[in-house]
Amino acid sequence: MLDFIVRRLIAIVPVLTVVAVFVFLMLRLTPGDPAAVIAGDNATSDQIDDIRAKLGLNEPLWTQFAIWISSILQGDFGESYFFKKTVAELIAQRVEPTLALATCTLIFAVSVSVPVGVLAAYRQGSMFDRVVMGFSVLGFSVPGFVIGYCLIYVFAIELGWLPVQGYTRIGVNFWGFLERMVLPSLTLSVGFIALISRITRASVLEVLNEDYIRTARAKGLSNRVVLMRHALRNAAVPILTVIGLGIAILIGGAVITESVFGLPGLGRLTVEAVLSRDFPTIQTVILMFSVVYVVINLLIDISYTLFDPRIRY
Amino acid sequence: MSATGVKPVLEVRDLTVSLPAGADRPHAVEKVSFTVNPGEIVCLVGESGSGKSVIAFTVMGLLAKALKPTSGEILLEGENVLAANEDRLRELRCTRMSMIFQEPMTALNPVMSCGEQIDEVLSTHTQLDAGERRAKILAILGRVKLPEPERIYASYPHQLSGGQRQRIMIAMALVLDPVLLIADEPTTALDVTTQAEILKLIAELQAGQGTGVLFITHDFGVVAEIAHRVAVLRWGQLVEMGPTEQILSRPGHGYTKMLISSVPSITPQHRGVRKDGITVLRTEKLGKTYSGKAFFQKARVVKAAIDVDLDIRKGETLGIVGESGSGKSTVARCIARLIDPTEGKVFLGDTEIATMSVGKLRPHRRKVQIVFQDPYRSMNPRITVGEFIIEGPMNFGLRKEEALARARKLMETVRLDPNSLDRYPHQFSGGQRQRICIARALAMEPELLIADEAVSALDVSVQKQVLELLDEIRQRLNLAVLFITHDLRVAAQICDYVAVMSKGRVVEYGSAEQVFGAPRDDYTKALFAAAPGRHWEFGKFATA
Q1: Domain check: are A284 and A226 in the same one?
Q2: Which of A203, A210, A212 best tests the B interface by mutation, with the highest count of B CBs <10 A?
Q3: Percentage of residues in chain A with pLDDT exceeding 70?
């Protein structure tokens, strides 16, 4: 087991290397000059050159890369071109809303989609099943910002139940925090619920045909026990896998959702950094997302062992 | 109490179960009546599709939704279970009637420990506290003769063998002493020695508790071994019923007679002395070792075949018999080079093929052809039978018209209609598909035909036909045949020579007459001793 974790952690290194090279090159090979953005509209080309030199952007590509990597290895993520702060500070400021959004979304999505998927599988072909599957197609296809604006219109503007935008820190006012989390996490959940309920339904359906389900029924167990104790636990591995992969959707969705609801999180930071060609910030945020993604999937893989005794690393 | 003083535990009266519209017949089961008395084992015998499992599932109330009991009664100690609601049925399951299934490998929940799974029965149906439940479970694990009940309690199904899992199933079924046990082919998936143990266990437990057993099987060997009374089913109808001895030796119905005479005899036929034929295939110290390489861990090494020396001559059938995991299929696959042997040599004629490179091997591939076990899964469902047969010869350069002409001829050889070449596999029955697989193998004009459990998935009457066909083809084409089987009766009937394998080694090798008549090795002796119904000469009916 320890063996497995160590190997998987070592495997993060090549993943991050590829991501680092890719992000670095993408930023430098696409048009758009951070120096020009910083200098503003009225700058002369000399001023821009000056700024370029100060930022080290005139160095050959590989030198820039080497400098960046070596400073990262020393724990220095650089200074933002745009925000005039170190990237580390910047991220520390912005991490809470995103973490809160992701956690609320995950809890909400899983607690809705898994029971719904199980029930849909149990009542395969029923009205309930068809409605759920219909909604899941809808949930996949409607873009997040459309859902977001619709929710704002209905619940914030027309009904006035919830605030339109903004963020309250969890430590400052818990109710305010919750009020402002409801709509964003609902928005972000929609796609996630569609995905997980579909997979839950499919894998429970498959398990329901297994011989041991017949055995469980032959023991005189109630339908609820058969479904929750015997079917769901055996169907857990594919569901967990999709939840893990879905974290990527969550990260992508956070960028849009935070913009719609004006949450000062990492998603918005990413958008702002990209628009202002803030290289150090973009690079660090993307590297960080990669680490989070790999680690979460490692945790998911480890969690398999809790559900299936046959899986041993 | 009736006049005889015995009240049956199960009484099935005029039971009819209808099939959904569009099925090949209107009823899965039609007007079937029989009884099971306390302490009695009643065997329901029939071929696939006879409705025997449907009856079992109807009694348990576990029928698939598409099937509906339309008339009749099923009385469990006088209570009509067809009229019982779902809650009442749940109460009855495992307390009054229990069921064990064919596949012990899949019948247990893989993510729950065996103890927990038995515990569920007790916590659902009794008021016992945790300690009492545990004591009761350990006691029943002891009664089904599982070693170290404490360890088994905590084990997961995948940590146990097939026989042990079936014991867990039996323990689960009998822990609350039900009056009726339904056993649906409980030993079919097990090796012959394990089967003998499980049959013995079931008989002992039911005799001890006076449990009535409804035992479903297709195997007359098992019937002869365990049944008190036998009911023969065909197409959902009860053909005849009576005491075992009477049914086996004086069957009244033609179908029963046909079925029983199809059971291959365990006494080998006299095949004559060995002809001086040309050796088609010879192996020398053939071995296959599987090693799983792990990064940090010690590599796991499994020796699937060790020092196997065999030879087959033209016109001869060599059988390899053994239990699962004995290495018999590994040897066949090595010979066909479907997998690469790790040691030793394989001579095809004079050519050594064990170490030959894949490119050079290609022309030799034609000479060795295999017919696999499951005719349902070894054919591509999306290509026609004709394409299936001609694909191989065309791959070796035959023109399409010639290949088709050959396919037509071969369809006649395997006694199928040559005009059905443009049909798809699902339009044929299992036996017909296996004939098509044989035709496909023959289309390559092989020197060696390997039949890997080729008749094991077939009903006994169909099995007999396919075996006769194979033997006839062998004679006519003077073909060398390697016949892999776990079924001693089949081996006795079709093989000139027999190699008995155990744990990767050939433990006994000789003519079928010698191996079956006077086995020398202890393992072979144990194997034969375990064969169900070995004392019974099937098909020698007494004249009434």
Answers
A1: yes
A2: A212
A3: 100
Domains belonging to chain B, first-starting first, are: 10-261 (3.40.50.300), 279-367+446-530 (3.40.50.300)
Nearest CB partner across the interface for B103, out of A3, A211, A217: A211
CA distance B108 to chain A (A): 5
Average confidence score pLDDT of chain B: 89
- Closest approach of A12 to chain B, Cα-based (Å): 17
Residues whose CB is less than 8 angstroms from the CB of residue B70 and which lie 6 or more positions away in sequence, other chains included: B16, B17, B18, B27
Q: Do A107 and A6 belong to one domain?
A: no
Do A165 and A279 lie in a common domain?
Answer: yes
Contact B101 A211 (CB under 8 A): yes
Residues of chain A contacting B108 with CB distance shorter than 8 Å: 212, 215
Closest chain A C-alpha to B494 CA, distance in angstroms: 35
Domain that holds residue A11: 2-73
* Beta carbons of B318 and B498 less than 8 angstroms apart: yes
For residue A181 the two structure tokens come to 């989390």
| Tokens 């803030």 sit on residue | A278
Q: Are B287 and B344 in contact (CB under 8 A)?
A: yes
Give B313's strand partners. B279
Residue B505 sits at the vertex; the CA angle it makes with B499 and B508, to the nearest 5 degrees, is: 35
Tokens of B528: 């034969």
Query: How many angstroms away from the CA of B490 is the closest CA of chain A?
Result: 29
Q: Write down the pLDDT at residue B393.
A: 92
Q: Do A56 and A158 belong to one domain?
A: no
What's the pLDDT band for B48 if we cut at 50, 70, 90? confident
Whole-angstrom distance, CA of residue A9 vs CA of residue A16 = 11
Put simply, whether A220 touches B (Cβ < 8 Å) is yes
Please write the tens of the pLDDT for every residue from B147-156. 889 999 999 9
On whether any CB of chain B is under 8 Å from the CB of A307, the answer is yes
* Same-domain check for residues A131 and A47: no
On chain A, the residues whose CB falls within 8 A of the CB of B296 are 3, 7
Q: What is the DSSP letter of B157?
A: G
Q: Are B296 and A215 an interchain contact pair (Cβ–Cβ within 8 Å)?
A: no
Looking at the fold, whether A153 and A65 belong to one and the same domain comes out as: no
| Domain count along chain A | 2
Contacts of A7 in chain B (CB under 8 A): 295-296
Residue of chain B whose Cα is closest to the Cα of A304: B111
Give B61→chain A minimum CA distance, Å: 9
Q: Are B390 and B404 within 8 A, CB to CB? A: yes
Same domain, A60 and A94: no
Angle between helices A279-307 and A232-261 (to 10 degrees): 160
- Residue B94 Cα, gap to closest chain A Cα (Å): 5
Q: Strand (E) positions, B52-206? A: 68-76, 79-80, 97-100, 180-184
- From the list B92, B111, B172, the residue facing A309 with the nearest CB is B111
Higher pLDDT, B300 or B387: B387
Model confidence over B164-184: pLDDT tens digits? 999 999 999 999 999 999 999
Separation in Å, CA B146 to CA A284, B131, B184, B222: 59, 20, 21, 23
How many other C-beta atoms lie within 10 A of the C-beta of residue A180? 22
Task: Using alpha carbons, list the distances in angstroms from residue B400 to A44, B218, B403.
Answer: 78, 42, 5
Residues A27 and A167 in one domain: no
Residues across chain B: 544
Confirm if B170 and B194 have CB atoms less than 8 A apart: no
What is the CA A37 to chain-centroid distance, rounded?
Answer: 29
Q: What residues of chain B have any CB closer than 8 angstroms to a CB in chain A?
A: 60, 62, 89-95, 98-99, 101, 103, 106-113, 120-121, 124-125, 156, 158, 169, 172, 295-297
